Amino acid sequence: MSWAQIIPLIFMGLLGFALFVYVVLDGFDLGVGMLMHRANTEERNTMVASIGPFWDANETWLVLGIGILLIAFPKANSIILGNLYIPVAFMLIGLIMRGVAFDFRVKARLEHQLGWNYVFIIGSGLASATQGWMLGRYVTGFAEGWQFTLFALAIALAVPATYTLLGACWLLLKTEGELQAKATRWAKIAWVPVVLGMILISLATPWVSTVVRDRWFALPQIIGLLPIPLATGAALIALRWILNSPRVRADLCWLPFVLLIGSLVMGALGLAYSLYPYAVIGQMTVWDAASSTEALNVILIGAAVAIPAIFGYTIFAFWVFRGKVRELTYG
Amino acid sequence: MDALILSRIQFALNMSFHILFPTISIALCWVLLFFRHRWVKTREQSWLTAYRFWTKVFALTFALGVVSGITMSFQFGTNWPGYMERVGNIAGPLLGYEVLTAFFLEATFLGVMLFGHNRVSERVHLFATFMVAFGTTLSAFWILALNSWMQTPQGYWVDPQGIYHVASWIEVIFNPSFPYRFVHMVTASFLTVAFLLCGLSAWQVIKKTADEATPKVLKTGLILAAILIPIQIFVGDQHGLNTLHHQPEKIAAIEGIWHTEKGAPLLAFAWPNKDTQTNDYAIEIPKGASLILTHELNGELKGLNEFEVHPPVAPLFFGFRIMVAVGMLMLAASWFGVYQLRRTKGDVLKFPRYFLYGLASMTFAGWLATLAGWYVTEIGRQPWIVHGLIKLSEIVTHTPPANIAFTLTMYVVVYLALIISYVGVLKYMAEHPKKTEAEPTAESGEAIAIVANEAIDSTSGEQK
């Protein structure tokens, strides 16, 4: 393979990586947002405090992801965003509602604060559901038909469930006492639709997409690929099992979050394998969609320097706010 | 209406809404760094109070800037897909570098800056604040480099498919209008913040909610504005000369010059008439435009008749005059304010009532001038997306117009609600400066300890 063929793959990898980091990081704070409708005022404040210092940087990964799509794969970007015009708009409205409610909910006059809480909750739900819908549409290559609509709808429910579980696991890690006990219960409830959703999607994806079917169900690949579903299943079962242990509210409070991220990594690998080498499944490969090699070279140099630096100060920020959540005050 | 006009309206709406918030956050963060630094140096409680209050304003502004910025990044793809296909090799790396070098920097350190004050040392906190300020400015650098390139493109070559490639990055980034545009925008940001500081502080004095920080904030705002506004007028003039050189049709539209003439008058007011190609009801200063733009009384200025395509005249003509008028008002207000500071020896409570009301009414004067200025420069590029090279109609989406009409309506409603909320909350905060804490205090033990420490610190500070 020549460099001109390799560099689009590097950027596809970066794109997938940015979107994966986005799903994990903004996933937990969108999940915390959706869970807020089950919490009382004091718990809501603690929940927002647990994500307050991070949400902004978390959302930047979405900007990086969409930026790479726009910059490195302009032709795929036109097709994808052209097909997703309306759901993108709804997602943006959701992200706008949520992002501003973060600040308005404590600064507005008292009688408006309750309203901003609902804006926060609804915005989180809307952003999560539209992301699921878009994923569903994208995976099927924007095919038309009732079964594809049904499929996209199923993912539009599965993604918020996954984010909710992520959010509950995050709260297990970051909170104590009554709220932590609630988070354990929330995690148990959210676990069921997450598992159902994953099974459904694993069955439905090859059913709605011949490309994916041919890719997975052929010897000898299927043997090499088996570890992916097996590891996902094992991680999810371990997660559910550990939720029953009292240690999940003590020294193992980090474990459910890590196990869930592990299963998401497996899911992402499976998805990457299904899609490769397409930028738009069945229509356009990454090489057809890519920008010129020299432009990609220029960005790659920057990315090679900037991304380790981003990692460095992201870890620094998470380290500064390590441990159980404390109340937030500007100082 | 077709997709082109709807997309243009939607983009203009998104841009106008978005620009309001970076215009504040770019400079406000440097002002916060100044407040925080004063607190560290002097231990005067008032600097910390000022820092706390304006941090809330900053956090709110930043959040609105982030969410509307994400919308902007999607707009390129949803409404102008041809843009990246044609000039992606140039615009892509510039936008990419903005995200990689600036966005993550400001967003990540923002958390530490806002909430990390009792988790990190004072030095690290100052560093985090500096990184946020640096990040916002760096962000402006990349965006203005790209915007300026679209106005005065150079350093590129075009292949037979009409795709643009980079010949020299130095020439692309440091294109002829970039230095003027960058300095003009950053200065505009500082002026906007200066009048925001003055306006909210004046409102606090009027509403009798002023605290120990108010005089310091008002003084900072007035002095900042008084120093910067003459500089801004000079920079703006230089920017105008640069535009005359590279985009003469824009200047012709701004000055309402329909036909090439020598000794062109400066129009203080007029009603440009598209049909007759003349200006009705003109109040003019003879030879003024020629004098300003060519530094000769009878200098020749090219008229719109010389250009095959040119921007619409009325929005540029009026936009420019609104910007200049607000600038003049800023000059008068800030210099009069400095005189008042001397007269009252810095006691802002003794400022004349009419002047306080005047400052309060100018709280968002910077927004007005900045928006007017951006309209002049961006509408002035029409019908081009890249001046002289690519027209907007070549890059627009094929999305059904009904979809765009739907999203446009949605954005109008949401943005209207947000702008009302934003201004409303700022007003509420100014009227209740002590009540609006960052988060309601659930467990106040720690907070009380901090307050007590600060009280001790501030008294010991005063004793020194």
From TrEMBL, chain A:
Keywords: Cell membrane, Membrane, Transmembrane, Transmembrane helix
Locations listed in the record: Cell membrane
Signal peptide: none
One example GO MF annotation: oxidoreductase activity, acting on diphenols and related substances as donors, oxygen as acceptor
Domain of life: Bacteria
Cellular component GO terms held in the UniProt record: cytochrome complex; plasma membrane
The keyword Acetylation appears for this protein: no
GO BP term, example: aerobic electron transport chain
Topology of this chain in the membrane: Multi-pass membrane protein
Transmembrane spans: 6-25, 84-104, 116-136, 148-173, 185-204, 216-242, 254-276, 296-321
Predominant localisation class: membrane
Sequence similarity: Belongs to the cytochrome ubiquinol oxidase subunit 2 family.
PANTHER family in alphabetical order: BLR3729 PROTEIN, CYTOCHROME BD2 SUBUNIT II
Protein name, UniProt field: Cytochrome d ubiquinol oxidase subunit II
Organism annotation: Aquirhabdus parva
From TrEMBL, chain B:
Localization in the cell: Cell inner membrane; Cell membrane
GO cellular component, one term: cytochrome complex
A GO molecular-function descriptor: heme binding
Chief subcellular location: membrane
Taxonomic placement: Bacteria, Pseudomonadati, Pseudomonadota, Gammaproteobacteria, Moraxellales
Topology term for the membrane: Multi-pass membrane protein
This protein's record includes keyword Iron: yes
Chain segments annotated as transmembrane: 12-33, 53-74, 94-115, 127-150, 182-205, 217-235, 318-342, 354-376, 404-425
Keywords: Cell membrane, Electron transport, Heme, Iron, Membrane, Metal-binding, Transmembrane, Transmembrane helix, Transport
Stated family: Belongs to the cytochrome ubiquinol oxidase subunit 1 family.
An individual GO BP term: aerobic electron transport chain
The protein, known as: Cytochrome ubiquinol oxidase subunit I
PANTHER family: CYTOCHROME BD MENAQUINOL OXIDASE SUBUNIT I-RELATED, CYTOCHROME D UBIQUINOL OXIDASE
